[in-house]
């Protein structure tokens, strides 16, 4: 079974696939970028010898984390800049959505206080990254206030996702069961992040 997983993530092209998927999911949150990163992390477990060797090249953990983090930050910045230039049309779209209006206000308050934990938390919540990036740009928040938190959010999410796949394979064996459990853990973190964002302000 591991050979099947390994073959899906074999070769250097996996880094480009991960990067493109993560970059685009700020615009298309339905893209399974987290599942892809976890699957690549599962395949990377082969390189440790803990899950057994397979006749495929396996991804490097640090390279996976770097590619996913870089793509996450770049995607955030593209969304941020597009929203910055969105003008009145985007402002009206946000004004019509209570959720987006509330998110914009809370994000502005958090960034103005120097506490961007909301950006990090939103990275794990479903569509949270998209909401935060677009709202930060639409509100014309300074890039120096937004970028460091975007980088921390991207790194946290990428490291967590890769670790889920990697250690899941070590503990449960490099099988589809391990991948499924790891994906469930990622969705669980997303549900918890969404709950916390609804329940109370994040400083």
TrEMBL record:
It is found in: Cell membrane. It is a multi-pass membrane protein. Residues 32-166 form the VTT domain. It holds the Pfam family VTT_dom. GO terms for cellular component: plasma membrane. Keywords: Cell membrane, Membrane, Transmembrane, Transmembrane helix. The chain crosses the membrane at residues 12-28, 61-83, 146-168, 174-197. Coiled coil: none annotated. Belongs to the DedA family. This is VTT domain-containing protein.
């Amino acid at each position: 079974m591991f050979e099947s997983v390994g073959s899906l993530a074999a070769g250097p092209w996996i880094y480009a696939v991960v990067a493109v998927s993560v970059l685009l999911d700020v615009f298309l949150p339905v893209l399974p970028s987290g599942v892809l990163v976890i699957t690549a992390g599962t395949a990377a477990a082969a390189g440790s010898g803990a899950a057994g060797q397979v006749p495929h090249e396996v991804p490097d953990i640090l390279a996976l984390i770097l590619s996913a983090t870089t793509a996450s930050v770049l995607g955030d910045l593209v969304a941020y800049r597009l929203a910055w230039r969105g003008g009145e049309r985007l402002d009206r779209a946000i004004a019509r959505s209570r959720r987006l209006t509330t998110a914009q206000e809370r994000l502005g308050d958090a960034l103005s206080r120097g506490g961007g934990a909301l950006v990090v938390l939103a990275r794990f919540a479903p569509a949270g990254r998209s909401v935060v990036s677009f709202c930060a740009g639409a509100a014309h928040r300074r890039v120096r206030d937004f970028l460091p938190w975007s980088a921390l959010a991207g790194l946290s999410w990428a490291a967590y996702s890769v670790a889920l796949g990697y250690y899941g394979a070590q503990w449960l064996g490099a099988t589809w069961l391990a991948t499924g459990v790891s994906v469930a853990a990622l969705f669980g973190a997303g549900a918890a992040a969404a709950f916390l964002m609804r329940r109370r302000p994040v400083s």
